[in-house]
Amino acid sequence: MMNWFSHLLSSVVEPFDYAFMQRALLSCTLIGFTNGFLGTFIILRRQALLADALSHSLLPGLAVAAMIVGLSPEGLLLGGLIAALFVALGAQLMARNSRLKEETAVASLYIIAFALGIVLIRFAKVKVDLTHFLFGNILGVGNGDLWIAYGAAFLTLGTLVLFQRPLLLTLFDVAVAQASGVKVRWVETGLLALTVLGLVASLQAVGVLLSLGLLIIPAATAYLLTDSFDRMLWGGAFLGMVCSVGGLFLSFFANIPSGPCIVMLMAVFLGLAYLFSPRYGVLSRLIRGRHYHEESLERWEGHQGHDHQIPEKSQDTRTDKK
Amino acid sequence: MSTPTDQEPMLRIEDLTVSYHRVPAIHHLSLTLDPGHCVGLFGPNGAGKSTLLKSIAGLLKPETGRILIEGITLEKAASLIAYLPQRESVDWDFPVTVRGLVEMGRYHQVGLLGSFSQRDQSAVEEALELFNLTPLGRRQIKELSGGQQQRAFLARAWAQEADLYLLDEPFGGLDRNSATALASALKTLKERGKLLLVSHHSLAEAEPLFDTAILLNGELVACGPTQEALSPRNLECAYGTAIYSGNHHHSS
What's the rounded Cα separation, in Å, for the pair A81 and A91? Predict the structure, then answer.
C-alpha cells in the first residue's frame, strides 16, 4: 500500500526533475491564473468574439517579428501587440467612416490578418513550426517566455485589482459610468491592451488558436456558478490555474500537445457547470422545477408584504383630469 | 424659491444646443430648476427628451451653451448627478446583487482601493431601507420585479448622495402596482429635497406625478407648474405642428 502510494507520488513528481517541466509548470500557473482573472472582464464586456479576432491577428505580427528579429520572445510580444492593436483600431476606424458595422469590420480584418500571417511565415528566414504557433508547445517555454508571463501577470493583475471599481461600473453600464465621471475610453482601451497582452503571454502554452480558451472558458464556468462579481473573478482565476496545471500533467503523461489538453480539461468543468450548476445548471433547473414555483410564490408574498400601495380597486383607474 | 446656502439654482441650462451629426436635436434651450421638485419631461417622439437628459448627464457634448449644477460645471459635479439607465441598456444577468448594486453608488466616496467605512455601510443600509429593498438585498438583480429594479437603481443614486436624478422613461413597461410604488419612491425623493427630471410618455398621468412640467419640441415650448405648462395651447404647439427641424441652420 505504502509502496504503491510512493510509486504514484514519485511518478507525479518525476516530471519536475526536468528544468523545462519546472518552467512549464510556473508558466502555466501564472498564465492560467492571470487569464482566468481577465476573462471575467472580457465576458461581462461581451468581447469574447473580439478577443477571438485579436488572437488570430497575432499571427502576422509573429511572422513579421520572426522575419525581423528572429524568434526571440520579446520580438514576438512586440509584433503580436502591434498586429492585434492594428486590427482592433483598424476595425474601429472602418466602422466609424464606412457603413460597415464594427463586428463585420473586426471579422474581416482579423481573417485577412490571419491569412497574411500564414503567407508571411513562409517567407520568415527562420524555420518556424506552424503547429507550435497554432497549438502551443509548453515544453519549449524559455526564460524569455517566463519573463513575459511574470510581466503579464504582474501588470494585468495589478491594473485590474487597482481599477476594479471603475471597471465594474463600466462593465455594468457604460453610460451610467460615464455620467458618474469614469473615464470610459481609458477603461476600454486599457482592457483591450491587457487582452492582447494576455493572449501573447499564453501563446507558448496553448498557441494562437487556443489562447482564447484560457481567457473565456474558466470565467464562463464561474459565471454559471455565482452571482457575485468577486467570486466570479477569483473563481475564474483559480479554475484557469488548476486547469492549466492539470492540462500540463495530462499533456506530459499522455504525450498530447499541451494546448488541447488544457482546453479539454476546462471544457469538462464548463460542461459540468452548464448541466449541474445549483442555480443556473440546465439539469438542476429541470429537477428544481417545483422549487422555482415556490420561490415565485414567496416572491409574490414578499411583494405584497413590502408594497403596501397595492390599491383595492382592480379596475384600471384612468386618472381623470381634475 | 432658492436654497438658503446659495443663490444658484440646482440646475441651470443656458442656451443649450445639442446635435447629432450636425443635425440639432435641441435648440437654444434655457431653463433653471430648483431642488425639491419632481419635473416631468414631455413632448412627441424626437422632441429631444432623451437628448436633454443625456446632455445633463454629460454623455453628449453641447454645441452651444452650458449646463451648471449648483453653479459648477458638469465635470466637477459628476457625483451629484445620478443618471438612471433605460431598462434595455442594463445587463440583468450581471453577477451583482441588489446590495452590490447599491454599494456601487459609494465607489466615488470610497475611492479606488479604500474599504467601506461605517459611514459607507450605513449609507447603503439607509438607501435599501428607504426604498423597501432591505429584505431583497441578497437577490440577484434579475430576480426582482420591474418596479423593484427601478427602486434598486434609485437606491444606488441615493447611496451616491446625488442631488439631481435623471430618469429616462422609468415607467415604461411597468405594471400598475410597480408604477404606483415607483411613484411613491419619487415622491419620497422629492420630499427629501432632491430634484428629479423624468421623461414620460403619457400626458394622462402627468398631474399627480409631477409638480412641474417641461414641454419640448426640439425647442422649449413651456416650463412651469404642470397644469400651466401642459395647457391646451402649449400642447397644440408641441404636438400639433411638425417638429422644429432647425432649417435656419442650412439657409445661409
Answer: 15
Query: Residue A316's pLDDT is what?
Result: 41
Topology of domain B11-249, per CATH?
Rossmann fold (3.40.50)
Say if the Cβ atoms of A175 and B58 lie within 8 Å: no
Instruction: With beta carbons less than 8 A apart as the criterion, state whether B130 and B188 touch.
Output: yes
End-to-end Cα separation, chain A, in angstroms: 90
Neighbouring-strand partners of residue B11: B33, B69
Backbone dihedral angles phi then psi of residue A213, each to the nearest 5 degrees: -55, -45
| Minimal-distance CA residue of chain B relative to A168 | B104
Closest CA to B230 of B93, B27, B43: B43
User: Structure pTM?
Assistant: 0.82
pLDDT score, position B249: 45
- What residue segments make up the domains of chain A, in order of their start? 18-302
Specify the 3-state DSSP secondary structure of B14.
Answer: strand
The pLDDT, as a whole number, for residue A313 is 39
Mutate to test the interface with A, among B96, B97, B120, B134 (most CBs of A within 10 A): B96
Q: Is the dihedral of CA B22, B26, B30, B34 positive or negative?
A: negative
* Count of CB atoms situated within 10 Å of the CB of B70: 19
Model confidence over A199-254: pLDDT tens digits? 888 887 788 778 889 999 999 999 999 999 999 999 999 999 999 999 988 988 88
How far is it, in rounded angstroms, from Cα A152 to Cα B226? 59
Confidence of residue A13 (pLDDT cuts 50, 70, 90): confident
Contact A44 B78 (CB under 8 A): no
Q: List chain A residues with CB under 8 Å of B177.
A: 303, 307, 309-310
Residue by residue, DSSP assigns B61-119 as --SEEEEEETTEEHHHHGGGEEEEPPGGGS-TTSS-BHHHHHHHTTHHHHTTTPPP-HH
Up-side HSE of residue A144: CA atoms within 13 Å toward CB? 11
Report helix, strand or coil for A194. helix
Decide if A181 and B112 are in contact by the 8 Å CB cutoff. no
Phi then psi dihedrals of residue A263, to 5 deg:
-65, -40
Measured between beta carbons, the chain A residues lying within 8 angstroms of B59 are 175, 178-179
Q: Can you read off the three cell numbers belonging to residue A114?
A: 490571419
Asked if B147 and A321 come within 8 Å (Cβ–Cβ), the reply is no
Q: What percent of chain B is modeled with pLDDT above 90?
A: 49
Q: Nine-digit cell at B37?
A: 421638485
> In this structure, which topology does domain A18-302 adopt according to CATH?
ABC transporter involved in vitamin B12 uptake, BtuC (1.10.3470)
Report the alpha-carbon distance of residue B86 to residue B107 in Å, rounded: 21
Percentage of residues of chain B with pLDDT beyond 70: 92
